[in-house]
Amino acid sequence: MLLNFFPSRSIAWYLGKTFLLRCLAMLAMLVLVLQMLDLLSEAGNVLAYPGNGDGELWRYVSLRMPQIISRFLPFSVLLGTLIMLATLNANSEVVAMKSGGLSAHQILAPLMLAALGVAIISYVFNERITARATATLTAWEEARFGPIPNDRGVKSNVWVRDGEDLIRAGTITGSGRQVRLQNVDIYDRHGDRLISVIAAKNGYYTGRDWRLEKVRIFDVTLGTSRDVAAITVGKGIRPDQFTLSSVDPDSLSFTELKDAIRTLNESGRPVASLEGALWHKITGPLSALLMPLLGSVAAFGIARSGKLFVRAVIGMALGFAFFVADNFALSMGNLGVYPPMLAAWAPFLLFLLVGEAVLITTEE
C-alpha cells in the first residue's frame, strides 16, 4: 500500500477537488484586490489621453489581469494549500485518513497531481495569453495610452555604438536586411572630443553599410552646418544591433525568446540574463508543484495541541522563502554571478528537497 500513492479513488478525488477550489478562491480574491489597486493607480494615466473613457479602462484591465494572474498564481496555490490542510487537520480528517493506513505522501499525492495540472495550465496561459497581453500593454504604455502603431515591430530611441561614434535611431521598423531607420543622429567623436553631429531623415541597410538620406552635418569645431543628399556610414553595424537592442522576455513566448537568444548569441551579444528568463518560463509555473509539499506541515500534528497556527505559519514561511530565493537567484543570474540554468532551476530543486526532507523527518 505504501507504493500506491492513490489507494482510494474517492479520497483522491475529494482532496484534489477541495484543493483546486481553495486555490481558485484565493486566486480570485488576490486578482480582484490587486487589479482594483492597480487600476486606481493607473486610471489617471489612461484617461489623460484625449478621447479615452470607460472602454479604454476595461481594455487596460483585460491586458493587466493576465500579468497579475501569472505572477500571483503560485501565491494562491500556497494560500489554498495552507487553508485546506489546516481545515482538514482541525476537523481531524487527516487523523482519520492516517488511521485508515494512508501515509503523508499518499495524502499529498492528489494535491501534487492537481498542482501539476495547475502548472501545465499556467504555462500554456503564459505562452498564449500573458506574453501577448504584456507586449500589447507595453506598446500601449509607450504610446501613452493612445493609438498603437499598426506595426508591432516598431522600436524607438535605440542607441548603437560604432567604435568611438554613437548612433541614435529615433524609429526602427522591419527586420533583417529590410530594417528601416528614421530620425537618425550620429555623434562623431574623436577621443573625448565631439567633432560633428550628423542628422538624417531616414536610412536603410545596403548589405554592407548604412545609407542615410536627407542629411544635415553640423561641424562642432567651425560651428557651421551643411546639407547632403546621402552618405554611407556604419560599415561594421549589423541590422540586429538595432532590432535586438532590447528584448523583453516577458513579452515573448518560450519559442520566440529562444529564437531571439540564438540570434543574439550568433551576433556575439550577451544573453545570460535572457537564458535565465527563458528557463524561468518553465520553473515559474512549476513552482505551483512545490506549494503542497512546502505547506504540508499545516496538515499534520495534533490540532488540539494549539500548534496548528504555528504549523501554518511555518508552511507559509517556507513558501515565501522559496519566492525570495527564486527572485534572488534570478537577480544573480542577470548579474552573471550564477549560470542561467542554475539561477532558474536551483531554487526549485533546493526547496523540493527541503520540503521532502521536512515531510519525511516529521511524518514518515
Structure commentary:
InterPro entries: LptG, LptG/LptF_permease. This protein has a six-stranded antiparallel beta sheet with strand order 1-2-3-4-5-6. It has helices spanning 9-48, 54-90, 93-99, 104-142, 240-243, 254-266, 272-294, 308-334, 340-363; strands spanning 155-162, 165-173, 180-190, 193-205, 210-219, 224-233. The chain folds into two domains: 9-144 and 274-363, no CATH class; 155-243, no CATH class. The model has no long low-confidence stretch (mean pLDDT 87). 59% of the residues lie in helices and 17% in strands.
What's a concise summary of this model?
Helix content is 59%, strand content 17%. The chain is of the alpha+beta class and 364 residues long.
Number of self-contained structural domains = 2
Tell me the Rg in angstroms: 27 Å
Distance between termini?
A: 14 Å
The H/E string reads: HHHHEEEEEEHHHHH
Task: Describe this protein with a few key phrases.
six-stranded antiparallel beta sheet, 17% strand, single chain, alpha+beta, 364 residues, 59% helix, 9 helices
Helix-strand blueprint:
Elements: H1 9-48, H2 54-90, H3 93-99, H4 104-142, E1 155-162, E2 165-173, E3 180-190, E4 193-205, E5 210-219, E6 224-233, H5 240-243, H6 254-266, H7 272-294, H8 308-334, H9 340-363
Antiparallel strand pairs: 1-2, 2-3, 3-4, 4-5, 5-6
